[in-house]
Each structure stands twice: as structure tokens, then as C-alpha cells.
Amino acid sequence: MTETLPDRRRLPQLVVDQPAPDLLQVKDLHIHFHTPGGIVEAVRGASFRVRQGDTVAIVGESGSGKSVISQAIMGILPRIGRIARGEILFADPRLASQGQPGAIVDIAALPPDGAEMREIRGGRISIIFQEPMTSLSPLHTVGNQVGEALRLHRDVTAGEARDLTAEMLRMVGFPDPVKALKTYPFELSGGLRQRAMIAMALVCHPALLIADEPTTALDTLSQREVMELMVELARQNGVAVLLITHDLGLVARYAQRVVVLEKGLLVEAGETRPVLGDPQHPYTRRLVDSLPRRAAHRREPVASEPILAVRDACIEYPGKAGLFGRGAPKRVVAGVDLVVRASEIVAVVGASGSGKSTLGRAVLGLKPLAAGAISFDGVDLARMTADQRRAFRRQAQLVFQDPFSSLDPRVRIGETVGAALRHDPEITPRQRRERVRQVLADVSLAGFEDRFPHQMSGGQRQRVAIARAVVSRPRLVVADEPVSALDLTILLQVLTLFQQLQGQYGFACLFITHDLGVVEQIADRVYVMSAGAVVESGTTGTVFDDPQHAYTRALLDATPSLMAAAAGVA
Predict the structure, then answer these.
(1) Fewer Cβ within 10 Å of end Cβ, the chain: N or C?
(2) Does residue 509 or residue 191 have the better pLDDT?
(3) Which DSSP state fits 8?
(4) Please, what sign has the CA dihedral across residues 70, 75, 77, 80?
């Protein structure tokens, strides 16, 4: 008989009258990486526990060891990684309920490719990775990938696996679960791909769910939807969650307890509210202090002619090709008006698919308009002469979201930054080299001219991307999600640097982001976009303190606030 998953509304509530038993205990864990340059101690004596039904967060910057711990729990450490000492004790509730001896297993002592570890991995402990597009196979349908976990860990027929998969996809919010069975990952939005990962992780009813940066690449609304869904399904099924993140707002909102790691060391742990509300360790205090905050003294709007003016801009994508030609074009930006004045930082915010990045590309002349006009210094981009367009390309620059993919891995940093000056007839090669050295010093990368991108950290690569954008002394910089993947402390450093450079060089900036905390810190004015249209605009203080549109209020409500969560406000 076909097994069906219980309806979400009828799932039993997990009632805990006394402290739940420990599901996972990590004791004095040491993990070493054996590299050609020697042994790297990635984790040094970490100890913590996860109770049944709890949500425990591990926080820390890149390189702190938080993802390495999750890999050790799953038995998927890289080949150069070794558990040098310590225990990872997993109390499998399924075995314990059956009265089997040895219900507690030490994962650290199990062979990673052994039968027992394979049964635990995916069946009793599941993981959701940071980027679903790289975690899901592009060659297999969502139904095949979610159903594979069932076929590996449950005794079900192909038909039963299909029915259970469709039901799981319904539970995670797919509008048409049957159709989704035959859908490929690249056909889904980022939010739906993450929902598919949640379905794959929960379909076998694991005891522990590890969520490794599950919402880093999502906009505010999608982030909240995914987190609420994941936590609710876990709670109703009695699943414990180990949340790995650098977002303290998420930790404050969803986790009961928190573990703070710094360079492989556990520096602070305890209940979330006291740890984040009154941190005792300097590193924890530094993380909390790194949260973006509104500037204390907001500048008044500049009363001057706009350097950039967007008037009634409409942008369309061609319709899909069919047997009888292409279908109707899809309008992604509809009637947008926007102004940026000299030395002003203007933010464009909105959820994924709102059209903000498409608008940014159009501002730089990289995307044609279907209607309307974009002018730079009073000159319409569509009517510029060849000489005017060459000058515009020097005066308007772009900072990309992912610096690693936008930097040529075979080209040294000095050459990459200097490329923007090669076609400037007024600069000699010697002046170009001096300008590159100066701008790298301005972004705290003096002496990095001969390095390659892979020899730098994420924050350093983002500094290179900023240096490349400002080296030509532009009058306008378009920054497209420039800090979305950075840790808190690095994010604060990059934002501070960006503001210093903007004050030093005086360029105007169109700052595209979905992070409202960043907008509050850096922007003078803000435009809120939804479904290709601007629904609200104004000074940052006005829009944030007194939002008029329901969509703006929804964005603000969906943004995790450390202070509100610490005070017990949802």
C-alpha cells in the first residue's frame, strides 16, 4: 500500500515538558587539513550539543570552521581532512525506540564510505547546502533527485517513491507538485530551488537537519519564506536543526541556542538571547557591532542637476521561440522613473525578479530600452555619438556581485585593475602603473599587483572589484549586490571602504541590493521595486521609518532584526 506523508496541519506537535535528550554531542573535536604546506588546524577542540527538536546555530566568519564541522558530521570531509581527536556522538532515535543496543554511534569513528555511515547520511542526518544550483544536478529532474533519497533509504516501490516525492514537494510549497516532478533545476527560481533542497533533505524524515548558509543568495522575502518553511516543517516533524550562518538576524529569530566559532575555536556558546544581547567574548561583540546600522548623520539631498535620469523606462525580454515564431515579449521593467545626483548614493531594492539588476544593466547601456529614455549628464544614451559613448564607458563603471567569477583567474591583479585605463589617451603607461598602485593602496591592497584572484580572500577580491571600478575616476558607479556573499565583519569593512572612496572621489552611485540593513547604512535615497515598477521612493529615513506601500512594509517585516528578535519580537 502506498505510504503517504501526513498533512502539515495534522502533524503532531512536539511538546517538551522537560529538557529533551541530546540528539548530537560534539566533544573536543579537532579537525586537521594535511596540505603540501603542512597541517592546518581547521577546528580546535569544539564541544557542543543539539537536543531533539532544537534549533542550534553555529556562527562565525569564513574560515572559522563552521562548515568543516558540518562536513565531519555528515562524513564528507575533503580527502585532505582528518578528525584528529574527539567524538561526534549521534543518538539515533529510530534505533533507540526499537530498543536496539548501541543506539548511540560515534560518527567520528565510522568509515566515511561504510554501510553504517551511508545509512546515517541522508537517512538520519540530512543537509541543505548554500547554493542549490551547484548542489542539484542540471541533468536530472527535481522528481528524480528528491526521489533518489527515498529509494536509497526507504523500502518503497518506484510508484510509492513518486507519490511520496510529489507530496513532499506540495508540503514545501511547489504550486504544481506533479509538474515539478519533471522540472529541471534551471527552470526554477532561486527560492523554488532551495525548496527542492528542503524537500530532498526532509523526505526521509531525518532526526537532524543541517542547514549550511541556506539563504545567503536569496532576497529578503524569499529568505523569510524558506526559513519559516524549513523551521516549521522541522518543528512539526520533531527534527532538530543545526543552522550554519553568518547572519545574526536569522540566528536571533530562529535559534534557541548559538555556538560562536573563531578560527576553529569555540569562543562562546549558550542561549541565543543572552549571547547576542550581552556578548561576553570580544569576538562575539565584534560580530554584533558589525551589523549594518543607519548612519548617525544622514546627508541632506543634493540640490543639483541629475547626473543620471531614467524616464518612463520599459525593458522587455524576447518571447519564447515556438513553431509559429516567437511569443509576446515579457516586460520586466515598466515605466520606471529614477534620478541620481552628483556625489549621491541611491539604492534600488526589491525581491528577486523585481527588475532591479536589469535596470542597472540598462543604466550602463548594456540592455536596450523598449520605451522611455536614460540620460547621462543630459545626453540620451540611445543618441550618443561614438566619442560620447567612449567617454561614457570611462565615466560609468560597474561593481559585480561575485568578484571571483568576474575576475580573470589567469590575469594578475595589477593588470586587471589597470585594464580600465588602457584606452584613456591622456594617461601614459607610467601614469597608469602609478594610478593602479595608488588605488590598490586606497582599498588596503598595497603590494598586491602581482597576485592572482585565487590567492586572495573573498573580501580582498571584492576590494579588487571596487578598485577596478574607481581607478578611471568615474562619475557614476553601479554596484550590483556587491556585498551579498560577505561575512558580517568583511561586509562592514567593504561598506566603510566604499563610503570612504565615494567621499574621496565624489562619484555618484546606484547601489542595487536586497539587503535593507546595507541600504539603511549607506544610501541617501532609496527606490523600492516590485514586479518591474517603482512602488515607493524617498529619503532612506522616510521610507524606513514611515513606509507607505504594503510591499515596502513586507520587505521591512521580512528583514531579521537582531534587536527585535532579542527582545522577543517575531
Answers:
(1) N
(2) 509
(3) G
(4) positive
